[in-house]
Write a structure and sequence with these properties.
The chain is α+β, with helices and mostly antiparallel strands. It folds into two domains: 43 residues; 131 residues, Immunoglobulin-like, CATH 2.60.40. 25% of the residues lie in helices and 38% in strands. The strands form four sheets. Strands 4, 6, 7, 9, 12 and 13 form a six-stranded mixed beta sheet that branches. β1 and β2 form a beta hairpin. The radius of gyration is 30 Å and the shape is elongated.
């Protein structure tokens, strides 16, 4: 036989409780437990989000041609860079993807398999993306260089006024110094 000093076990916490005032004791215990659980949850969430980084994507074309090769992001950013190639139709994008060899580096370290980082063709465009790093503190920076070399001429369509065909390649598609230095503020 189990000794129960007050004659009953609390069904929630398995502790003995008095017959008189049982409901008050149980409700107080429940409130206390939920309060403690709430405090622990808030502390755990605070600890896990305090060091969390925010994802930021920087377009290399905008950085180079509009920002002079410089871009800023908030401190604490996980930086991804992108470059999008779009055409008037899916076939031209596929021709570009078949002809391209992409090279890129982050702070001078080559990105392995850069030619394979092009995404699927969507809306007659494909986007290349790569993680550049986490810029934790203000003043932290990362420099990304990017180049696409085409193995053969890729048709870009024709000028509606002159009928002249636009083409790119073979060879380097972008200026030799094409890149972006991204700095946390």
């Amino acid at each position: 036989m189990i000794y129960r000093p007050f004659g009953r076990l609390d069904p929630i916490f398995g502790r003995a409780c008095e017959k008189s005032g049982r409901k008050e004791v149980v409700n107080h215990m429940k409130r206390t437990m939920f309060f403690i659980i709430g405090i622990c949850t808030a502390a755990a969430l605070g600890a896990s989000t305090a060091g969390a980084s925010s994802p930021v994507t920087v377009g290399l074309v905008g950085c180079y041609f509009l920002g002079g090769g410089q871009a800023t992001v908030p401190a604490g950013s996980d930086v991804t860079v992108r470059f999008t190639w779009g055409e008037s139709n899916r076939g031209r994008v596929q021709d570009f993807l078949n002809a391209q060899t992409t090279t890129a580096d982050v702070n001078g370290t080559p990105i392995a398999g850069a030619s394979g980082l092009w995404g699927p063709i969507q809306d007659a465009a494909s986007t290349w993306r790569a993680f550049a790093g986490t810029l934790t503190n203000p003043g932290d920076s990362v420099t990304v260089h990017f180049q696409v070399n085409l193995a053969h001429v890729v048709s870009e369509g024709k000028d509606p006024d002159t009928g002249q065909h636009f083409k790119v390649g073979p060879g380097a598609l972008l200026p030799a110094d094409f890149g972006c230095t991204i700095t946390a503020t």
